[in-house]
Amino acid sequence: xxxxxxxxxxxxxxxxxxxxxxxxxxxxxxxxxxxxxxxxxxxxxxxxxxxxxxxxxxxxxxxxxxxxxxxxxxxxxxxxxxxxxxxxxxxxxxxxxxxxxxxxxxxxxxxxxxxxxxxxxxxxxxxxxxxxxxxxxxxxxxxxxxxxxxx
Length: 151
Fold this sequence. Notes:
Keywords: Chloroplast, Membrane, Plastid, Thylakoid, Transmembrane, Transmembrane helix. It comes from Linum tenue. Belongs to the ELIP/psbS family. It contains 5 helices and 2 strands. The chain is mostly helical and 151 residues long. The protein has a domain at 42-146. Strand 1 (4-5) and strand 2 form a beta hairpin.
């Protein structure tokens, strides 16, 4: 710290300690911007770039890929045989259940991103769904070319 010396009197004066700032002197921190309102309109939720289509298709592909491999391992049937022997009924039932379960939170305004954390993120679900879609198509194509079950 430094001292000031008065030239006329020769006395030293220490500067006064700075007073703590009052609440009127503290700059106000702006509040965080409000979160954008999530649209719950039917057309917005199911739009091509909306939150529902790819997520629902990915979830159905994940279930379908695992189910197709499980049935193939247990019964030795390829995907086309599974579909022709009653698989369509299971597909439609599963599609309805998963679609409704996916749409209900979206119509309530709940986003998938708000519920994800840790390893189970919404991005991880999207990538897993995309890979399952590719895997299901690759499985069907391979079995078609091969002429029988993959496994």
